[in-house]
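Researcher: Let's try something more involved. This one mixes different molecule types, so please make sure each is placed in the same coordinate frame as the others.
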Amino acid sequence: MLKLRDGIVELYRKVATSLPPDIEDAVKAAHAQEADSSTAASTLAVIAENIKRARETFRPLCQDTGVPVFYVKVPVGLSHNELRSTILEATREATQKVPLRPNAVDVITEKNSGDNTGEGFPVIYFEETSGGTLTVDLMLKGAGSENAGQMYKLPLAEINAQRDLEGVRRCVLDAVQKAQGRGCPPYIIGVGIGATKDQVTRLAKEQLMRKLTDVNKAGELAELEQQLLGDINSLGIGPMGLGGKATALGVKIGVNHRHPASYFVDVSVGCWAMRRGRLIW
Amino acid sequence: MLGDETGTAHMVDPRILTLPLSAEDVSSLRAGDLVLLNGLLITGRDKVHKYLVERRPPKAEFPFDVSGTVLYHCGPIMRKTEDGYVVVAAGPTTSIRVEMYEADVIREYGLRGIMGKGGMGEKTLKALREAGCVYFHAIGGAAAYLADRIKKVVTAWKLEEFGSTEAMWFFEVKDFPAIVTMDSLGNSVHKNIEELSLQELKKLIGP
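Model: All components are placed in one shared frame. Result:
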């Protein structure tokens, strides 16, 4: 799997150093909406210039190259264990070559492994696919935005959130207002709703892999995504939390069936530098 | 408008500041001011703060005098070359993580500026007022852009012990852009935005 390893090293490079076009377009559109000579406009101008420079010079957009999260769709018959070893080898190599910042810290010894590998690091999710193509999706999830995420258990009296989509809307707005500028807005917000905590957390993060231009297949959710985007952008938090119109660039919602007695909502916050990419093998 | 070497204008009417800052520099800065920093600054994040507060190393232990300089919350990506270290990416990290330490660090080491992202809390705001210091907000995620404003890696402190992400780096910067968001009079952009956004939230979801 030598060539696949090289492919994954290149995927790391691409994801760390260049922002997907849909997000870059959204940053530009947000810049155009802010008042001339405002802090928000200056901030977005620097961000736009940073995106350009990082891509042109093959340098990471952000020094926090984050936690690598892999979503791998595997054709029948390919070994998950072998793929995992290949991803780990590629991670070590990419840490040197791109370079990535070494971010894997042992909780007991506090020692940084130095190569972005460790227990459960990177995060790797496998899923079997019926086709013959191996698809490797990679997200580099910055810690500033990861720390800004929240989970809710409905009903929740403090924000008068009941077990319905209006309750979900309240959770998302509450989470963004609490996050303020700490997770590097304008944000991309992923929401997961369902029966168990582990499931909704993963589901919320997976939503961040969707293109901003992607429209939710469920009409009710597509509508809620649009409404939330408008609501969030009326909060006035703005780029970097310093005030302005652009607090979010997109909201994406995913649902699982829930238990009659449970209604969990997870809000995953993505920074403007929402780095994601795909390798098809 | 101030242009940079690429001819693009990014910051409107910035104040040009030279480090170390004086007490007068600090008292004249107001929340909302755009600035360009020039001179020698230091970096420090989680490990540096914990160490400084727990061990209180004397100022003389640092390779350069840190009085009056800016402490930048940053864990850069560095590349080791034959000619020493090169900065690859160096944007700010979230400042609130060192809230419990910062007030003591400001007082003990005579810093005139703290720089990071996301702002800090009441304890730091009080220390800024009492000690004559300001909080600069750098642009989160703009790591390649900001690395280009670091003209020289002067030296590092605790590099072996803490590793390159957590070490205290001494960087010579030129026209490093930032926004004053907490000043020495007790004004905080973060506090204002938090209050305003809470009012907006209440309009959207009720009290």
